Amino acid sequence: MPPYVPDAFKDPRQREWSAGWISFLALNLFLLALLCGWSLDIMNQSEFAALALGLGIIGFWRHGWGMVNFLRAIYFRHETLRGDRPLARGFYNLSILLPVYSQSDEMLRAVAASIVESVRSVPGRVLVVCAYRSEDQKALLSGAIEGECDVVMQFVRQIGMGKREAMADALNLMKASFPDGEGNFTLLMDGDTILTPDAIRRSIGEMQVDPKTGAVCVNEVPLVEGEILFTAWRWLRSVQRNQIMSSFALSRRVLVLTGRFSMYRSEILLQTDVINRIRKDFLVRKDLYISLLTGDDKTTWLEVLRRGYDIRYLPDAFIYPVEQQDSEKSFVKETIALTTRYSGNMARANLHIDAWRGAKGKLHFQYGLLDQRISMWTSLLTPLVLLLSLFFDSFDVFILFLTYALLIKNLQALALAASGRAYDPYFPYLIFYNQVMSSAVKIFAFAYLHRQKWNNQNIASVSDDRAREMDRESCISVINRCALFFMFVFFIYFTIR
Hints:
α3 (105-119) links the parallel β1 (94-99) and β2. The model has no long low-confidence stretch (mean pLDDT 86). Strands 1, 2, 3, 4, 5, 6, 7, 8 and 11 form a 9-stranded mixed beta sheet that branches. This protein has 17 helices and 11 strands. The longest helix is centred in the first third of the chain and has 34 residues, at 49-82. It is globular and about 75 Å long. The protein has helices at residues 19-43, 49-82, 105-119, 135-146, 163-177, 197-209, 228-249, 266-269, 272-279, 296-306, 331-350, 353-358, 363-378, 381-392, 395-420, 427-447, 464-496, and strands spanning 94-99, 126-132, 152-157, 185-189, 193-194, 213-220, 223-225, 261-265, 281-285, 288-292, 310-324. Helices cover 59% and strands 13% of the residues. α2 runs parallel beside α15. It is α/β, with parallel strands linked by helices. The protein has 2 domains: 19-79 and 372-496, no CATH class; 84-331, Spore Coat Polysaccharide Biosynthesis Protein SpsA, Chain A.
């Protein structure tokens, strides 16, 4: 972990082999052994043989996609580590867009220090454009970056119209500095991202050796300030992200270019039409134009796909995104709030026509986009069957289903450990929690595309009257789809019983 990161933020990998880590692991293994023994005793009764077979068939169908991604991720990382890992070479210019919000002075100094360390080896001109809120932020960053290395800094004041406006203004400044953009690179990052020199050198190197690569993103190790459960949850999300990114990168596509760190060819990003789209992007849904207030990173992702470029992922290059749990929110409220933001942006990007145009000829990528639409329903199959067995069947059936669910989640946690060298005994339970919570949030996100929120600013994507009308339509749609899904689950349950 970088030495200039505030002590309050912890690397989640440091929890390994602590007393609490070992105790919870032992408790998890004991519970798993107890349930497996109980279930084996139940399955000795012939009446449950068909149920066990049914569970195996359903499990193979449900988790086949996960197994495909697991194997693809293993192969991709093996090939990446075995092959050449090019570093940036020759002369090039680098532009960095740094938006800052309410980060503390200590955090801004850490971000600035990581930028200084990362750009020292850049052979050309480095331009840092900072979108700031207060004059204190401007003075702090100017002194911490310009005063420590040879860079040019420019500033854009955020005036309350949202992140997109500030980003567009910053990109226009970059375009004026590097009008042709050819052979140059642009980094979009967040104001709470700690860079590493390898992340920049490796990203630029990949694009230099492959002219078809238009953008690159890297692996993440989150630095978290919050309770133990939230730290484990945030670490789980990064480990899962690494696995799914590695799998899709085998097809030279990824499902998202994260705003934490994404490197682009400047000739793609610094175009007037692209900048205007970042400023004001929209989605056409049911003959209605829905302005995209959030998800600027999805707009740039769609732009790379639209222009036919490949996207690369580097599992061996890292950044350190900082995550701080809101002290006024519980674990459940905080994780739901973050998942709502992620899922809302994902839903709006998934339904954009450019995403599907960019998937042409990439079968795995096409199915990945489709899976984003269906997994929110299939992921609810296990928890609903658990409830059905608890309320409408014998307790033995419930124990059998519970054992099946816990065993699968432990296997998934071990698969993550095997593919990403990361494990936490909380993972099996957090995977199940995410499965249920994320599914419910995604159902809401896909139905209520018009509902967006950005930093509590008074910005709306549609008028209040139209929003209320769409709320009614969305509510009816969700009820109808839930009813159909419940009927399907009842059919599956009583078939395997």
